[in-house]
Amino acid sequence: MIPGVSSRRRFSDLSEQEILALAISSEEDDARIYRNYAERLRADYPDTAKVFDGMAEEEDRHRQSLIDLHQTRFGDVIPLIRREHVAGFYARRPVWLVENLGIERIRSEAEMMERDAEAFYLKAAQRTGDAETRKLLGNLAAAEAGHQDRAGELEQEHLDEDTRDTDAEVSKRQFVLTWVQPGLAGLMDGSVSTLAPIFATAFATQDTWTTFLVGLAASVGAGISMGFTEAASDDGELSGRGSPIKRGFASGIMTTVGGLGHALPYLIPDFWTATVIAICVVFVELWAIAWIQNRYMETPFFRAAFQVVLGGALVFAAGVLIGSG
Questions:
Q1: For the chain, which has fewer Cβ within 10 Å, the N-terminal or C-terminal residue?
Q2: Burial 41-53 (b: 16+ CB within 10 A, else e)
Q3: Are residues 147 and 279 in the same domain?
Q4: List of E strands, 40-96
Q5: Is the pTM here over 0.70, yes or no?
Q6: Which of 60, 61, 43, 42 is nearest to 51 (CA)?
């Protein structure tokens, strides 16, 4: 079970007051992010910085409109509820992960922010029965859509590329959210978490068949657990991550594959032959994870490799030491 999943509220369970509170905190966060982008770009792209300054000011106006509406309907005390408190709610990348990657990346991030915000306001408007609240949320959705268009213009103004295939970009992002992210999480969990039980059993018994059975049980069990956890953690309604069933299958299958990769060699009767092959498979798995992180999650390759290989090596060493004890 992923820590913290059970403590997060589903969007469908929020009251209208909590939805307004969530919108207020989200607008505040987005305004702060836009101001950070503006400062990052001001020296080299002063005109673009002014655009982000204006977008931040508009987010401030949105927040004030939401606060005024909350005061009218529910009073002055606004519940403390933020994005991380709601299951499946869109997340924002930390500014420090984006600001040093150039104007193209900042533009793409801003466009995604506004797309997410528009989707949220449209969903929120459907949840309210109050006419004034529905009107405001609908107007905010339209305003966020306008921001999307403005963010998309930044590339034309400041980059050398003449065209961008927006449909391909959206399709790629959806593919990453629905399949790559949960599949990568499953592959990492299956590859790393099963190292200790498999190799502990191998060195404790030096029985290849027993080791294979333990590896098979650990891999299948972890796959079922990860699949159900992924599917239950986010219904995809707000986050745009797609069908929970698809994500559950991606996570569960890749978790099982990650564990079976170094369990299958123990079908070979000779213990040391099977163990050497299993270690080679582990090496390939860990480098594959690092490559996927670099290719789809934009993690620097050597950083990803260091984190994954170091973590895998520690778990492997723990399994060997426990099994040899």
A1: C
A2: beeebeebbebbb
A3: no
A4: 86-87
A5: no
A6: 42
The string of DSSP codes covering 220-261 is: HHHHHHHHHHHHHH--STTT----HHHHHHHHHHHHHHHHHT
Considering its fold, how many domains does the chain have in total? 2
| C-beta of residue 66 within 8 angstroms of C-beta of residue 136 | yes
Whether 257 and 187 have beta carbons less than 8 Å apart is answered as yes
Query: Whose structure tokens read 């793409």?
Result: 108
* Residue in this structure with the two tokens 């080791």, named with its chain if needed: 211
The total of other beta-carbon atoms located within 10 Å of residue 71's CB is: 12
The count of other CB atoms within 10 Å of the CB of residue 316 is: 22
Show the tokens assigned to 237: 């309604």
Q: Are residues 139 and 215 in the same domain?
A: no
Distance CA 315, CA 189 (A): 12
Residues 227, 229, 234, 235, CA torsion sign: positive
Which pair of tokens denotes residue 73? Answer: 């309907």
| Per-residue model confidence as pLDDT tens digits over 255-313 | 999 999 999 999 999 999 999 999 999 989 988 898 888 888 777 888 878 888 888 88
Tokens matching residue 35:
């101001």
Domain boundary pick from 128, 158, 188: 158
CA quadruple 58, 59, 63, 66: dihedral positive or negative?
Answer: positive
Please give the residue range of the domain that contains residue 212.
166-324
Q: How many helices (H) and strands (E) does the chain have?
A: 12, 2
What are the tens digits of pLDDT across the range 74-97?
999 999 998 888 877 777 766 655
The residue whose two tokens read 């009218």 is: 72
How many Cβ atoms sit within 10 Å of the Cβ of residue 212? 21
In degrees, to the nearest 5, what angle opens at C-alpha 245 toward C-alphas 214 and 114?
125
